[in-house]
Amino acid sequence: MEKGSKKLAFKEKEDLKTASAINNRGILSKVYGNLNKDNDKPIIPLGHGDPSVFPCFYTTPLAVEAIVDSVRSSQFNCYASSFGIPPARRAVAEYLSLDLSYKLSPDDVYLTAGCAQAIEVIISVLASPEANILLPRPGFPMYESRAAFSHLEARHFDLLPKKGWEIDLDSVEALVDENTVAMVIINPGNPCGNVYTFQHLKKVAETAKKLGIFVIADEVYGHFAFGANSFVPMGELAYIVPVLTLGSISKTWIVPGWRLGWIVLNDPNDILKKAGIVDSIKNYLNIIAHPATFVQGAIPQILEKTEESFFSNVLNIAKKAADICYDKISKIPCITCPHKPEGGMFVMVGLSLSLLDGITDDFDFCLKLAREDSVIVLPGVAVGYKNWLRIAFAVEPSILEEGLERLKKFCQRHALKQEDIHSIVTKNS
Ligand SMILES: *Cc1c(COP(=O)(O)O)cnc(C)c1O
């Protein structure tokens, strides 16, 4: 260092390092980092849920026109107000009210830069030294990361693979104490592909009410349901317990790059308002950046004009992909799928390490799969579920088939030989 120059006062934040390390993006980048550049097989990305790159999942031209019209109008070059421009808030309120037995007001809607920023806002607002929040396991790691960074204690309740990944409500009750503020549910589910019935959601609401906590419903995959259960918004149970609904256009319209999401208050009895949570959300929104105003300007057209056929087409492809995934996986001995996905873009599959030779855990499995076969899959540890895998099936069906074929060959190459299994069995008997 030069004489007389002062040292940088920067100090690296440990909690930020932790928050990043437990994020799926951090773990996925390590899996990508293990690709073999000399391997000429094209990379098959089954690691994250962004189907926007595949032509069969392109968004509707009507949404694109809405954006173009918004930019052309020159009316949205301005800053937006902190909670979102009124026509966009009204459009979201009307869109979500279509599924509710009561009507949301535009004042119940706060626009955010995607659902990810909605998560940031909520976790930041709820964090206090004593408080804790209940999160699903397996779950969506952004909740854990934001909680770690904000020093909000996260406690985990279980989802039950043999019961369609329903919430284990006994495990919820066992976790709660007087400092628990809320529980998070993700429906339709990431990473499990679950779609909850009205009856299950009602039990969730009744449990939360009994425990004196409210529900944060991550419905970023709202309407992305293609199985027997149709999507029911948690807000429909808001007469039992207050609900904050988080959502965005990212997944349903397949435009995650447009960064437009929302926090919606489903609180007919004003419980969250009286507790000061609504004012805290408003105060937080006053000190952060907003989604781009021209995207907000396009929202009324996007939400009101999108044709039903766009959604039904996307859901048909997703259903086909989920079917391919389930069938192919059922033919791979070392991997099992406890529940066929009914919604969302992911399936969770269990890994039988005892049938594999030289694979230490799920992370090791994914690193080797990337290196040998150029297939990217997320290790379950990234979603709180060690020795499972999360597979994104919302990709072009032909690419998915190729990816699963390589996965099968990989498992065959690494399978324990019959005689090895025999000797293990006889040794243990
Ligand atoms: C993708 C996703 C988000 C983030 O949504 P964006 O609108 O892209 O920010 C939040 N929650 C879950 C469960 C997701 O899968």
Automatic annotation (TrEMBL):
Residues recorded with modification N6-(pyridoxal phosphate)lysine: 251
Recorded GO MF terms: L-tyrosine-2-oxoglutarate transaminase activity; pyridoxal phosphate binding
Keyword NAD: no
Keyword terms: Pyridoxal phosphate
Keyword DNA-binding: no
Biological process, per Gene Ontology: L-tyrosine catabolic process
Pfam families: Aminotran_1_2
Required cofactor names: pyridoxal 5'-phosphate
Domain Aminotransferase class I/classII large, residue spans: 42-407
SUPFAM superfamilies named in the record: PLP-dependent transferases
CDD domains: AAT_like (cd00609)
Superkingdom classification of source: Eukaryota
Family: Belongs to the class-I pyridoxal-phosphate-dependent aminotransferase family.
Descriptive protein name: Aminotran_1_2 domain-containing protein
Organism: Cephalotus follicularis
Lineage: Eukaryota, Viridiplantae, Streptophyta, Embryophyta, Tracheophyta
